Write the structure tokens for this entry.
Amino acid sequence: MDESELEARLRRRLHQRFDGGRASNGLRDAVIASLSGQPPAARRRLTPGTLFAGSRQLFAVAAIIVIVVVATIAIFGREGSVGSPLPSASPSATPSTSASPSASPSGSAPAPASANPTGPEGSVPPISTTAWSGLDLQQLAGAPELAMVVPWSGGYVAITGSSSSAQAGASISRDGRAWVQLPASTFGLDDPTHNTFVIGGTACGTGVLIVGADASGNGTLWYSGDGQAWRQEALPGGIISQVRGAFIAGSPAGAVVANESGPAIDVTTDCSSWRRVALSGPTTAQVTAVAVVGTGYVALDDSSQAPASQPRAWWSSDGITWSAATVQAALGHDFSVVWAGSGGLIASSHAGGTPGAEALWSSVDGHAWTINPKVDPLGVTVSGAGQGFPAGSLTGDGTRFLAWGSRGDDPAKPTEYLTSSDGTHWTQLAITGDLPTGLPGAYQVLLLRDGILISGDAGTWFGAAVTK
């Protein structure tokens, strides 16, 4: 195995398995410092995740290997927190006045918006509701490397970047094929200290919300109705000391944000004003994962790793009134992330200890949750540090789930892509067209309305969905 292959495999292990929230303070700070080029004291705990959360303790070993072997990799946390850009070869939108570097206090006028008179061309594809049978891949000439994509009614907002650059950027697209680069100042990503990050985003009403944070955990919220002019406001709750999984979710009816003040949710129906809603449960309960289900929401907590702790969940039809869900007894487990399809939901939990344990859960509507091995279509890793933990990665967009990876986490085996609407019945997709080059672990896989994007250092490919 040559150096580039080793680097790609280690990067894959890092972005799928490392969770700074589970590592010791010293290890977490050392890993973050090595990835960002910043001294450990300059960073706080930002650990978002959109993929399977693997073994926190076991992967600490792999994280140390990353530091020693590839400490020069300027990786930017592809699970959600991004801090590195790749200049797009697509035509750039006209630069404009940048937004204020700090969020406006509650009750004050919002910071100036950034605006671009020229947007992307094309139309937004309709959501593909027909079952997929395959993907036809084609490399996108001049497309940026994409680390995060946020779908909304006007298309997509993407955070771009590469592992070899030191700063992130942002681009927009109508169809996911043609991308227009936004000004470097968008979301404050031109921060010369490289301590400004985008950690998530969601559709909200007819617009889109993007969440940013600095190295001290100060959150910033950005809203746009067209993907070009952005209004900067304070994030409800202000401080983001830990971010795991999908902590923000939205729909045409509004959005919710997981709140760090005990069991609570911040909700908006106009994408501007927020209301805090308390949830049932002890003050130690902490909501860290939310998802949209129809016109409502579900919320899951990550209270502690105490052996006697019981994972909790809630559901709401409107974001205002919440009810406690029934959760199978699983003492010591805490939820880390949740995804939705049209026919059900999937969640992941972790139990403390060494090496700990992972569990995958399913629910039809968020009212009741049970551990369900059927939602793990690629099985578990058969050897190495992650032995016994999920071998694949998973995401969902409210319509379908997408799983990808190699069975048994064997890099010699081809990458498989599978879809499901309910999380329990899976269809393997036939792959045709222009296959990506390089190791699969070097790529980010992103689910779109009518296909997927596979993006990495070697390029970006669009996989058009083939229907039955």
